[in-house]
Amino acid sequence: MLQSKPQAAAVYTLSQAHTVKSVRPGDHYVICDAGGGTVDLITYRVKKIDPLELVESIPGAGEACGSIFLNRAFEAFLKDSLGRYYNGRRSEQLERCLEDMRRRFDVEIKQHFTGNRDARWNFWLPPELYGAQIDGTEENCLIITGRDVTHTFEPTIIRVLSIIRAQITTLFNRRGYRPRLAGIVMVSGFGQSSYLFKRVKDEFERLAEITQPPDAWASVTLGALSWGMSNQTVTARKLTRCYGQEAHLKYNPDCGYPSVRHPFTGERSHRAMQWFVVAGNEVSVDQPLESPLIPVSSLL
């Protein structure tokens, strides 16, 4: 049986002693699995604590707005800053400088930037660009400021905040009462970003506690291992898609569909979908879904 990344993260994060102390039955938690390529969300309701048992509250959601988009935005910034020196034939020294800039962006800026617009980073340029007319340079260094980094982060941060907001809105709108949203948990690599955490906290702290586990980057792997040893932590899921098959049904003139001949009996019929399950339905993880099928031979 396969397990989704947000589910693995939830299994590990909510089962840790420092978190479970504050967890109560009936609490809902939004797990924000912010990785390199995508940001995936699942909301769970705590059914039991000992042992921990979780049920999906609403169907999960996700979008391609992970940290790789920060790297692409930073690359666009370098291209815009260096202009023809970036676009033209690059020397080996310039390539090494660009690689060092990308590495430092990954290691120093992407995870640890807090939103301080007055921060600045100096990136040495190769000797061939000493004295070149490049905006934003001082003493043979390309200067990247906190304002530049904020501008680089902003489109991706806005998309992440948008899907979290949509998940919370769906949770509040789909139940007959206002559920108790106890927390939003930030996990995976991008989930460790100080600036992303700050923006999520600024936006949603009035609704729930925002947490960022110290081992957020490893929560998916650790949760998968934990679930593999005992896969009953999450006992029910909300389907995100409908599943069914096209069928030939006895023709009904009021159905609105054109009549066709049944491929086996030749009788007048119409084609329609027969749904086995519908998006939003809650299904048990260990209960197979069955639908009767009629053998073709019985129709001949």
Automatic annotation (TrEMBL):
Superkingdom to which the source organism belongs: Eukaryota
Cross-referenced InterPro entries: ATPase_NBD (IPR043129)
Name of protein: Actin-like ATPase domain-containing protein
UniProt source species: Aspergillus caelatus
